[in-house]
Write a structure and sequence with these properties.
Layout (H helix, E strand, L loop, with lengths): L1 E6 L2 E11 L3 H14 L18 E6 L16 E10 L10 E5 L2 E8 L1 H15 L8 E4 L8 E9 L2 E2 L6 E2 L5 E3 L5 E6 L3 E2 L2 E2 L5 H14 L6 H11 L9
Antiparallel strand pairs: 1-6, 2-4, 2-5, 3-4, 3-7, 6-8, 7-8, 9-10, 11-12, 13-14
Length: 242
C-alpha cells in the first residue's frame, strides 16, 4: 500500500548508533534491545498512540546529522540509525538518550511487512531518484507486530500545495489523479481527476471559487483580504504561471 502524507516537524528520542550499511544488522539490532530495556526512562516525554503506547520509529541520519541520504555525493555509504520513540520538538532527552529533529516534509508512505520492505524500498528509490529530498524512516503502527511497518520516503520539503487552487495536499485523498489512476503530485482532487482538469476556468474565476474557503478556514478574515492574497498567490502556481 502506497500513500502520500505530509508530516510536520517532530522529534525522535532513542538509542543511536553509527556504522556501515554492509554491517547494518550487527550494530543496529542491539539498539532496540537497549531501547526496550530502558523504555521507562523516556515514557514520560514521548508521544503516545490511541492505546497509550509510545510511537516507535526506526530513524536514519547521515554521519553529520543533516538529514541526508546515505551514499549521497560527499557522504560515505554509512550513517546513523536510531531505535526511537516520537516526541515533541521541545522534549528534553534524559541523560544517556539521543534526540533528533525530523524536518517537516511530504512523504510517500509504503506499508509492508519487514520481509517485503527492502525490495519495495529499493524499487521506489530507483523510481523516485533525485526526487527524494532526504533520508527515509520507518514507523511501527503496531509495535510488537512484526508483520507491519510504514516506511516514510520524503519527496518534498514542507507541505505540497495544489498548483491550481493552492490547497494544501497533506493527505493521500487530497491528491488528484492521472489517466492511469496514479496520483498527480501537482493538482488536488478538487481540480484534477482522470488526467484532466475538472472544468476550465480563468485564474480570476479560480480566485472567486477559493475566496469563501479561505475565509471559512480562517486564513484571511474577510473576502477582500482573501481576494487580495489569492490574486498575488495564484499567479505563482504552475497552472497560471506565464
Amino acid at each position: 500500500m502506497i500513500k502520500y502524507r505530509f508530516k510536520d516537524a517532530f522529534a525522535v528520542i532513542g538509542k543511536a548508533g553509527q556504522g556501515s550499511a554492509e554491517s547494518f544488522q550487527e550494530w543496529a539490532d542491539p539498539l532496540w534491545a537497549s531501547l526496550e530495556g530502558n523504555l521507562t526512562e523516556i515514557e514520560g516525554v514521548v508521544r503516545k498512540n490511541e492505546d497509550g503506547k509510545p510511537c516507535f520509529w526506526a530513524a536514519l541520519n547521515d554521519n553529520n546529522e543533516s538529514n541526508k541520504r546515505w551514499g549521497e555525493p560527499g557522504f560515505d555509504d554509512s550513517g546513523k540509525y536510531m531505535a526511537a520513540c516520537e516526541a515533541d520538538i521541545d522534549a528534553i532527552a534524559p541523560s544517556g538518550w539521543v534526540k533528533w529533529v525530523i524536518p517537516a516534509q511530504t512523504y510517500i508512505v509504503v506499508r509492508s511487512t519487514p520481509a517485503e520492505l527492502e525490495e519495495i524500498y529499493a524499487s521506489l528509490v530507483k523510481k523516485l531518484g533525485e526526487r527524494i529530498v532526504g533520508v527515509g524512516h520507518s514507523f511501527f503502527p503496531e509495535y510488537g507486530n512484526d508483520s507491519l511497518v510504514d516506511t516514510y520516503i520524503p519527496i518534498a520539503s514542507g507541505m505540497m500545495h495544489c498548483q491550481s487552487c493552492g490547497m494544501p495536499m497533506t493527505e493521500d485523498e487530497y491528491f488528484g489523479n492521472n489517466a492511469d489512476g496514479g496520483k498527480n503530485e501537482d493538482y488536488c482532487c478538487h481540480c484534477h481527476q482522470g488526467g484532466a482538469f475538472l472544468g476550465e476556468c480563468t485564474m480570476e474565476e479560480m480566485v472567486e471559487i477559493c475566496v469563501p474557503h479561505i475565509v471559512e478556514y480562517g486564513t484571511c478574515p474577510d473576502d477582500e483580504s482573501a481576494r487580495k492574497m489569492l490574486s498575488e498567490f495564484l499567479p505563482t502556481l504552475k497552472r497560471w504561471k506565464k
